[in-house]
Amino acid sequence: MAWLILVGAGLLEAVWAVALGASRNFRRRRPTVVFAIAMPASLVGLAVAMDSLPTGTAYAVWVGIGASMTVLWAMLTRQEAASAARIALLMLLVASVIGLKVVS
What we know:
The chain has helices at 2-22, 29-50, 55-76, 84-103. By secondary structure, it is mainly alpha-helical. Keywords: Antibiotic resistance, Cell membrane, Membrane, Transmembrane, Transmembrane helix, Transport. Belongs to the drug/metabolite transporter (DMT) superfamily. Small multidrug resistance (SMR) (TC 2.A.7.1) family. Mmr subfamily.
């Protein structure tokens, strides 16, 4: 159950990161509200997951999910270029996150 909460928290990290960028320095209301809700929810999910998972592993998985989903979103929305090298490195990041789960 902790892993499921951690994955949800990681996805919420990507949501707040994208909303933060879209808020235009907190000048746009809707992305600012999304940020203000998603960020604490993400941190609460991380904290709950850390009750039963090692801190280092939980944090690395949380960051890995958030970072990879944020980059994937940016590539899908064409805000960042997608190249073979970037996609390969993103896959390596995801593989590393999976590896951390396997060995813990």
